[in-house]
Structures are given as structure tokens and as C-alpha cells.
Design a protein that fits this description.
binds iron/sulfur cluster; 4Fe-4S; 33% helix; seven-stranded mixed sheet; N-terminal domain of TfIIb; 685 residues; globular
Length: 685
């Protein structure tokens, strides 16, 4: 007789790939995932999901999955039990603090992990170690959004919900390729256009939405600030501004008006390569719309002047009175990782506590100290690039990297590897033996998003539940359990023993999340923040009454355009831009271990036919790419998606060496790397 098949179960959870936050139904049988289906009533996805969320779950049963902790002995990583691994980590952290003080320890938390795990990591660093040296990968992508939006409006989040954005009659989509990188949002934007909204796309490449645009602006990489000032110049010159809003709800108009006098369309055309005519067409579309909305991505932030870019873009919405009013849908960043918003919301940042209270603000510290029962350091901690610099200089005794393959994803990767190898204790929590794990002293195997309990916050500030669809392999623990276990090995009980308790405690530290709980999310599905009270619905649209700045006003910014860190020259005549493709996700550690690899098996170097002819490259053949920092090999793909002088590749295949090419130039305000502008040369091998 054959055994009866195990019954199918369904688990409702939130996608662990991009920041759209699609609700998924995960079907399992006998403890294995058999299908992932989009939830019909998902508040963001409404029955849709993309190729990543639906099909990229083969990594769960990959034979390459780490199943035991690893400890380096005599130069080699060897499997050990949890007690031995945790004891080694605890002794190493104690030793680092004893030798160099609390600031000799640093941790990189994870935008892939849940809110509760991020809350616990930052609490561990601040309470157990006694330092603010904790950061997350938003440093590498949207830290300029956090800084820029906070400076312009007061809070670090998109100003409107996506349900509002798709009611816009004009969309300005800047530096984003949502059709591939955020496909469910890409489809919703496209539907909005098909219903009649006008569309302006600003992106150097012919990204999917550009095919449907009324105007496609193709600025030279690194010239965004000049482009946005050019658009603002036209708005002012043609009276396409909301004077009442500017008088009553904004500051900084005289300074901006003076600055914009230097950005007439023809000068902007000279800087950006966008014709004055196109610039004026775009400004008039945005300026004459009744309900315009701005959506943007990493093409705005990952620059030497990324924060200035965000603020100059925000200027457009302020000039039009299209933020905090019914006359538009504000400024909305498309977050890359599933929980990059939440990791920052939870205070996994060196200068900000949960809920964005500054560590330098006595009132914010006092709130946290009352809950945690220990003093919080006033001095901001190290940012990720500063952690690596400190490690290389011998100033860091221990570094804990959680769920980030920093040796593959951070810029100037050779120097990141040097930092890890120099640091006396590197601990890495990972699913696979990543490039970072290979260099660690201790590797801790942890659970994936399909195996854990908690919440994520998506790109329009919605808390949603994450539930375990399957149990992790026997020896694997969640990050939540691991952080608790390391604290316990150091003799400290961190409290909040469950994810639900951790979110509740976070709400005491950060009242802006005080109305959100697991129980409520189980009943209601999604709750946006700010939500200070369980009886309130949460705010989908921010700033209706006042902006969250000290004076309650939106702040126009008057930052001049400054050139990018690298310019093409005779030795490196092309500009490399990196970004995402549809089937893969970030370093590809999960999407390359399963069926999605067949959909998109190699990384390509996209280049224009003129450049291919000039450098002797043919479609489908290997190309060697060199920058001032390193070398990579990619397969050339010839087409007109890029313009002459620019090449493009993804960062999904770290083995090709893409981030050995990128520079350590970084946003002057937030240290976000300038991934979008690297001068390179190409040749046949
Ligand atoms: Fe949705 Fe993004 Fe997941 Fe695709 S990757 S299913 S768009 S959340």
C-alpha cells in the first residue's frame, strides 16, 4: 500500500524580494513548498506577483544551503555545534570591547530580515555592546531618500500610498525601471498610463516604461540635480507653481529662485544632454497636471550628490503644491529590498533610534533608555563604509554582518574583502557560503523569509505579516533566535522573547508605531505608519495638516549642481551604470539557486552598436570591462537600450566582478555609494 499524500497547507505571508510587499499564499506539502500564489486580496498586489515572488523558492532546498555553524581553525572553516560557535562569538565580542571599548564593535543589520530582527539587532548593539555602530544596507541604496525626504518634509518615507499614486493624471518616473525591478508596481503604473495619465520618464536607458512615455528624458548619468533644477526653472518661469502653498506651507523660495536663475533650459541641456525642448515639454506636463505624482528609484540616490538629487526632486512637488494636499501625490521612492524601509524604521542606523529619533536628541534617548533600562550613547556610530575603513585601519575588533554579502554587493569590493580579512573577528549570519561568509571567522546558518515569523514594512510604509510557511532545516535558527542566543552567551537577557513582543516593545520606544501589533495585522492585513494608536487607521497620505519639520513647513532646497565623482576620459571613455533585471534579485544568492537561473542565466553588458563597433565587440561574446578600481568579464549584448558612451549591467552575478569595478565615491551627506557612475573601458578578451 502506498502512503496517503500529505495534505496541502496554505500560509499567507509577504514576499521577501522587493519592497513592493506583495501578499503571497505559499502552498506546502510534506514540509516543502509546492507553489507560491499571489493573494487575490493582497493590499498592494491584488492578485498579481512577479517571476521572483512566484518562482524563486528553489533556494530553500539547495544542497549549498548552510546547515551547521562554521568556525575558522588553522585558516579553514569547520562545522561546529551552536554552543561552540556562540561561545566563540561571545568571547570575541567581550575581547573586542575590553581591548578597544564598545565602539570597537560594529554590526551590519539586514534589510532582508524582519522588523523584529532589526529591532533586536540594534537593541543588542546599543544595550549589550553599548555602541551606535549599527547600520543597514539602506546606506547603499536609499539613505539619500531618508536624509533628503526628512530634510524636505520631516519624515523618512514616501509621502503617499501607491493607491493614491495611481490616481495621478501625470507620473514623473525618475531613475527607476519598475517594469523589471518592481514588476507589480511597474504593471500598475502602466495601467495608470493606459487609463490616460501622462507619463514623463527620466532615465538614461530606454527602460520599459519609456516606451509608453509622452516624454523620455535621457540625462547623462550624474547630472540629475541640474535636470531637476531645469524643470523647476521652467515651472517658475511659466508660473506653473502654487503660490498659495508656497506662501503658507513652504520655506526657501527666495534662495531657490536665485539659484534657479543659473539653470535656464539651454544651460541644463549643455550639462545633461537633454534638449531644452524636451525639458520644457516635461516641465509643462508635470506643471499643468491637476494631480501629479513623482516616483523614483536608485537612479536618483546612488550618486555623489544623491541627497541633493532627492531634495531637488522634492522641490518640484513643493513648487506645485503637490504634496500634503489633494493637488497631487507627492514624492515616492521605490524601495529595493523587501524590508529596507523597516530596517531603518526599526533604528538599525548609526544616528537614529527606532522611529527616527536622533541619538543626539536627549528626549529620544530618554524614551529608549526608559524602555531598555540602560543609557544610550549620544555619539552617532559608524556608517558601513566607515566600518570597513576602521577595520582596515585596525580600529575595529569585531564586525557582525547579518544577511548581506558585502564582499559582492558593496563598491570597490577588493577593499571590502581587505577590511574583513583585517578585522580580528568577523561573524557572518547567512543562508549560503557567500563571498562574505568565506572570509568570516564564524558563520551562523540562518532561516530565510519563508521560514520565519514577524513583519516587513513595504515601500509605502505598510506593516504586513511574515509567517513561516516551512520549518528551516534542523540546525538552522532565525536571526531573532541567534541575536537572543549571542546576548545570552554574553550574559544578557534582551527581553522581548517573541517577535510579537519585540514589535510591541518597539512601539513603546517609537510611538509612531505604537498602534501596530501582530494581532492587529492578523485581523486587518496591513497598517501604514505613522500609527500611534491601535484605534487609528494609520496615515496613507502624509502632511495633510502640517509637515513634520520643526516649523511645520516643507523646505525647498537650493543645492547647486556638482559633477559626479568620475568622468569618462581618454583612458576610461565609457560610463557604466548598474541596476536590476527582471528574474533576479540583488546579489542573486537566492534567485540564482533555482528555476529563475534558466530564465536569465548570465549577466550581460548592454552597449550601443556604435560602441560595440568602436571597441571590436560582438553580440554574445565575452567582454572585458576595466575601471580604475578593478576588472570584470561579462557577455556583450548589443542594442539601443543604452546610448553611445554608456554601458549597463546588473549586480546579480557577483562572480563576474561587477563591484570590483565600482568606485568608493559616495553621497556627501549619507555615504551612499555612487554605483550609477563609473568610468570604464571595454575590450575583447
Ligand atoms: Fe511583488 Fe516585488 Fe515580490 Fe515581485 S519581487 S512578487 S513585485 S514583492
Amino acid at each position: 500500500t502506498s502512503a496517503s499524500p500529505a495534505a496541502e497547507t496554505r500560509t499567507r505571508t509577504t514576499c521577501g524580494y522587493c519592497g513592493v510587499g506583495c501578499s503571497l499564499e505559499v502552498a506546502t506539502q510534506g514540509g516543502e513548498v509546492t507553489a507560491v500564489l499571489p493573494a487575490r486580496d493582497g493590499p498592494v498586489n491584488r492578485g498579481h506577483a512577479c517571476v521572483k515572488g512566484r518562482f524563486a523558492h528553489g533556494f530553500l532546498t539547495s544542497p549549498e544551503r548552510l546547515t551547521r555553524p562554521l568556525l575558522r581553525r588553522d585558516g579553514r572553516l569547520e562545522p561546529v555545534g551552536w554552543d561552540e560557535a556562540l561561545g566563540h562569538v561571545a568571547r570575541g565580542l567581550h575581547a573586542a570591547v575590553a581591548a578597544g571599548g564598545p565602539d570597537a564593535v560594529a554590526a551590519i543589520s539586514s534589510a532582508r530580515a524582519t522588523n523584529e530582527e532589526n529591532y533586536l539587532v540594534q537593541k543588542f548593539m546599543r544595550v549589550v555592546i553599548g555602541t551606535n555602530n549599527v547600520d543597514n544596507c539602506s546606506r547603499l541604496c536609499h539613505s539619500p531618500s531618508a536624509a533628503g525626504l526628512t530634510a524636505s518634509f520631516g519624515l523618512s518615507g514616501g509621502t503617499d500610498s501607491f493607491d493614491d499614486v495611481e490616481r495621478a493624471d501625470c507620473l514623473l518616473v525618475v531613475g527607476a525601471n519598475p517594469v523589471e525591478a518592481h514588476p507589480v508596481v511597474g504593471a500598475r503604473l502602466l495601467q495608470c498610463v493606459l487609463r490616460g495619465a501622462r507619463l514623463v520618464v527620466a532615465d538614461p536607458r530606454a527602460v520599459g516604461l519609456a516606451l509608453h512615455a509622452d516624454v523620455h528624458l535621457r540625462p547623462r548619468p550624474g547630472t540629475n540635480v541640474a535636470l531637476f533644477h531645469g524643470l523647476a526653472h521652467v515651472l517658475l518661469a511659466e508660473g506653473l507653481v502654487d503660490e498659495e502653498f508656497l506662501r503658507d506651507r513652504a520655506t526657501g523660495l527666495p534662495e531657490l529662485t536665485e539659484l534657479l536663475a543659473d539653470y535656464p533650459p539651454q544651460r541644463v541641456a549643455d550639462i545633461t544632454g537633454v534638449s531644452a525642448e524636451h525639458l520644457m515639454d516635461a516641465a509643462r506636463l508635470y506643471g499643468r497636471a491637476e494631480r501629479p505624482a513623482i516616483v523614483y528609484g536608485l537612479g536618483v540616490t546612488e550618486h555623489l550628490h544623491g541627497t541633493d538629487g532627492v531634495r531637488s526632486l522634492a522641490n518640484l512637488a513643493i513648487l506645485r503644491g503637490a504634496v500634503g494636499t489633494d493637488r497631487g501625490y507627492g514624492v515616492n521612492p521605490l524601495r529595493g529590498q523587501n524590508n529596507v524601509q523597516g530596517a531603518s524604521d526599526m533604528g538599525a542606523l548609526p544616528d537614529l533610534l527606532p522611529g527616527y529619533g536622533k541619538v543626539t536628541d536627549p528626549a529620544a534617548r530618554a524614551r529608549a533608555e526608559e524602555v531598555w533600562g540602560v543609557p544610550v550613547r549620544e555619539r552617532p556610530g559608524l556608517r558601513i563604509p566607515q566600518m570597513f575603513a576602521a577595520a582596515r585601519a585596525g580600529g575595529l575588533g569585531a564586525l557582525w554582518v547579518i544577511g548581506e554579502d558585502v564582499c559582492a554587493t558593496d563598491p570597490d569590493a577588493n577593499r571590502v574583502a581587505e577590511a574583513l580579512e583585517t578585522c580580528p573577528l568577523t561573524v557572518c549570519s547567512e543562508l549560503f557560503l557567500s563571498e562574505t561568509a568565506r572570509r568570516a571567522d564564524v558563520v551562523l546558518p540562518v532561516a530565510s523569509w519563508l521560514e520565519k515569523d514577524g513583519t516587513f514594512v513595504n515601500f509605502d510604509r505598510r506593516f504586513q505579516r511574515v509567517r513561516p510557511a516551512v520549518a528551516p532545516p534542523r540546525e538552522i535558527r532565525t536571526d531573532f533566535e541567534v541575536v537572543h542566543a549571542v546576548a545570552a552567551a554574553m550574559g544578557v537577557d534582551l527581553g522581548c522573547p517573541t517577535p510579537a513582543a519585540a514589535l510591541a516593545e518597539c512601539g513603546w520606544v517609537a510611538p509612531v508605531f505604537g498602534g501596530v501589533s501582530h494581532d492587529r495585522l492578523d485581523r486587518e492585513g496591513a497598517v501604514p505608519w505613522p500609527c500611534p494608536d491601535p484605534g487609528l487607521p494609520g496615515e496613507t497620505k502624509l502632511y495633510r495638516a502640517r509637515f513634520a519639520t520643526a516649523d511645520g513647513k516643507a523646505h525647498l532646497a537650493a543645492a547647486p549642481y556638482l559633477p559626479p565623482g568620475e568622468q569618462p576620459d581618454d583612458d576610461y571613455p565609457l560610463v557604466l551604470v548598474t541596476g536590476r533585471r527582471w528574474a533576479h534579485y540583488n546579489s542573486g544568492s537566492m534567485t540564482r539557486r533555482g528555476g529563475n537561473l534558466q530564465l536569465d542565466p548570465v549577466d550581460f553588458l548592454d552597449m550601443h552598436p556604435d560602441d560595440a563597433a568602436r571597441y571590436g565587440l560582438r553580440d554574445g561574446e565575452q567582454a572585458v570591462v576595466e575601471s580604475r578600481h578593478g576588472r570584470a568579464r561579462l557577455v556583450a549584448r548589443i542594442g539601443e537600450e543604452t546610448v553611445p558612451g554608456q554601458v549597463f549591467c546588473s549586480f546579480h552575478f557577483p562572480a563576474s566582478g561587477v563591484n570590483r569595478l565600482t568606485s568608493d565615491h559616495a553621497d556627501t551627506v549619507t555615504s551612499c555609494p555612487e554605483y550609477k557612475v563609473t568610468a570604464v573601458r571595454v575590450a575583447a578578451p
